[in-house]
Design brief:
Layout: H1 9-51, H2 69-84, H3 87-107, H4 115-147, H5 153-187
Length: 199
């Protein structure tokens, strides 16, 4: 262990605090974005497009009145994607920082004895790995999301065919990340204490 911050009750208290805060931000942020914010954004744009000119569009017509249902769905998806897309770099950056802090603090207890500390590290390694895979995958999904509306029909068709499977894979990875971060957060109820470092 580093001597820059000598071992003792204060150092161990800081480690526990950082660990819990990092996991809380990670799990809470990921769960909120995946299960509350993103679905609400896509649903909101679907209603905006279907309702026609309104205060949500500054009373401007954003799609012709005789547009087909498929055209309306495509526009709603494109608008929602343009709103969510810029969030992803910050979202995954937050996850990466929180995951790194949680993992580094957990490693300080790895040799303290007890299966719970080893299990904690293994969960966090797996969760960080899902973030490392999901980040570039999310960037790719964002790219093909836009290419679905390319003026080149060949490019648009290829993007539409690729979007579904890769988008599903991205969603599944995000779900796994939330579950792993949540499991690690649950284990935070069994952190080492000064009176029992191997708890």
């Amino acid at each position: 262990e580093s001597r820059a911050f000598p071992d003792g009750p204060r150092r161990r208290g800081w480690l526990r605090g950082l660990h819990v805060v990092a996991l809380g931000m990670w799990f809470g942020g990921a769960a909120f974005f995946n299960f509350a914010a993103a679905p609400a954004i896509f649903d909101s744009f679907a209603r905006v497009v279907s309702d026609g000119p309104s205060d949500r569009t500054a009373n401007v017509t954003i799609i012709r009145p005789d547009a087909s249902e498929d055209e309306r769905k495509a526009l709603a998806s494109a608008l929602a994607g343009s709103a969510v897309g810029p969030v992803f770099p910050r979202y995954f950056g937050m996850q990466a920082v929180c995951g790194l802090v949680a993992l580094v603090t957990a490693l300080s207890w790895y040799g303290a004895g007890g299966r719970v500390h080893r299990r904690r590290v293994h969960l966090l390694v797996a969760a960080c790995a899902t973030v490392a895979v999901a980040w570039p995958l999310s960037n790719y999904v964002s790219e093909i999301r836009l290419l679905r509306f390319s003026t080149d029909p060949v490019v648009a068709l290829a993007a539409k065919e690729a979007f579904g499977p890769w988008h599903l894979a991205s969603l599944l990875l995000s779900f796994v990340t939330v579950c792993l971060a949540g499991a690690a957060l649950a284990l935070a109820g069994n952190l080492p204490h000064d009176d029992n470092p191997a708890a």
